[in-house]
Design goal:
Length: 119
């Protein structure tokens, strides 16, 4: 089982940037495609970004394309989400999980990290 811990969230003004990290434990972390997901109050959790096992393949939700970038460092068992040009509608709790396409594969979630973007 891979344990996941997200960090890096915070309060930022619109137009600002944040970098989120997802630290995974376990020797098999590098065997998984990984995804970022987010959940805003009163809304369903939604897909944000995908990165393949090797880090070569990435894709994004239309709402963040061109502003967010995901990458991974398998030597550090860590996945990153660089978020630029943040908008108030990006405010949510952000989570990472194993991914198959735009869906999560683990039936558990970390604590997430809160991102709040002020206008």
């Amino acid at each position: 089982q891979v344990q996941l811990a997200e960090s890096g969230g915070g309060l930022v003004q619109a137009g600002g940037s944040l970098r989120l990290s997802c630290a995974g434990s376990g020797r098999t972390f590098s065997n998984y495609n990984m995804g970022w997901f987010r959940q805003a109050p009163g809304k369903e959790r939604e897909f944000v970004a995908f990165v393949s096992e090797s880090g070569v393949v990435t894709y994004y939700a239309d709402s963040v394309k061109g502003r967010f970038t995901t990458a991974r460092d398998n030597a550090k068992n860590t996945v990153y989400l660089q978020m630029n040009s943040l908008k108030p509608e990006d405010s949510a709790i952000y989570y990472c999980n194993g991914a198959r396409g735009k869906a999560e594969i683990f039936d558990y979630w970390g604590q997430g990290t809160q991102v709040t973007v002020s206008s």
